[in-house]
């Protein structure tokens, strides 16, 4: 059974559709890039799957069932800018939030949860920052804290919204290592991604999106100049530059 | 009667003790909920809810015709909740921004409340009812049963908040993630608003509808200055709320019949100013002192670097290790006044980094170590910036100490290689014997 199956998903803000008739399914245990121009509805797609915004029509199946957050199969890494980093808390505490779904109502995190959260911080190379107030972390470090929080969720499918945006070299490496480790564990990871140059290096499978699914499939077959052309439309100068790049890889 | 005796009499009065207990619990509850409201950027909703309680109080009075606190508070709760949901509903469904909506709801409800209050005071039963006390608060008019109601509610509010601490924290920090975890965010949001309304409603008798919001906001912003942990912030905020509640009640009782609300707010504001000025870490005084210290340190480092670079230049040009730098050269290079330059040079001399001969300066052995370290750090930083894909600028300090202490480490070797390539390696190293590099 495929971890994610989407049929004819349409999402609209007011009356303007942002996604129309999006359909795709993704194989289990792969790293999947969701690629498309600005405003193509990439983040909207993730939010709709997670039920954060309502859909106008269509079907979303997670392992063959309707999505229910309580099943704890889906982990989410939102865009870094979506929260107020001046919130009074430290890095370890944010990671612990990933455990809240497992801890249950009224209870406090146990020592085991703390250890697990520390382990997740270690996996993103941030264990020495566990006590750091989150506003004092750099952008890349904040992104890594968000990734550690998703790890602590211990989900089967992960959705990540632009984790590579505005991060330093060390964070980029940490994220790539983490993606590969997740893949090794058999998890399915869907990543909204911007940088066409790294697509071939990072992802096994791509979904090209521009309001609708333009193409989807294994990266070698799908990430082609023709498909990119259909996704990005008339931005020729930009595509010319990338043609060289796509051919090189 | 002396003031002291009066104070003693007030403190031994059974009713006053009840009132003090009530305002203390009220202070804790509103401090606790106010902290969360502040972080959720909902402080102003508390203000609107408080003002919106007035029409509820008047309607309840008009309906039953007597002043029973329970009935009045039920009325206040209903209009308060209606106002809170109006704000959320209008914000979600119209193009108006939340601040506009809050303003609109607050003024409409409060205006309506004042109209009703005028009507009440014109009726024969009404003009002695003391409903006007609800505007600025009158703690002294609380009787035993009122206080029990207040205290009981405050206790429940504190209990619910502590039980749901974890959930409320996540809801406040990252609501989308909370929803992704399967938390019932809509229910929690509703519950929190209800708790907030309850805190406001039990406070209006003592503090009054106009100033109630201050008891939500002021203790929590004061507490925010002292800590970076939400748990500690909430506890401190409750403590500040309790202190202001009790202090305000005592002061107003002391003055016989003075409104309580303003005194509570003044006490809370005093705590806020003290926190803003003197809190460690975030307080203005500490920040200001730290800034001055940092600026001074920066200037000292600039001067040490300048002297080092001058010595380096001199060495590279003439091969001489024992050059001297004039005060004027340092001052003009850094665009410092001569007076400032001399002061800082004097400080560095006292610290043992410099040697002075008249108007000319050079580095001591210790100064050479320091100057070398500072220049190295600056140049390693530049290498990090030039080779962003290889090195992380944030790790500049660790990289510098690696280059100095463990030059055989592969990363250090690479940086030393690059420094050589760009001719940026500090020429006079105290580690390799002066000038032997």
UniProtKB/TrEMBL annotation, chain A:
Pfam families: ABC_tran. One of its GO terms (molecular function) is ATP binding. Keywords: ATP-binding, Nucleotide-binding, Transport. The keyword Transcription does not apply. Coiled coil: none annotated. Signal peptide: none annotated. It comes from the Bacteria. Residues 4-236 form the ABC transporter domain. Belongs to the ABC transporter superfamily. This is Metal ABC transporter ATP-binding protein.
TrEMBL record, chain B:
The chain crosses the membrane at residues 20-39, 44-64, 70-90, 102-121, 149-166, 234-254, 260-280. CDD domains: TM_ABC_iron-siderophores_like. Keywords: Cell membrane, Membrane, Transmembrane, Transmembrane helix, Transport. Its main location: membrane. It is a multi-pass membrane protein. It is found in: Cell membrane. Belongs to the ABC-3 integral membrane protein family. It comes from Robertmurraya mangrovi. It comes from the Bacteria. The keyword Ribonucleoprotein does not apply. This is Metal ABC transporter permease.
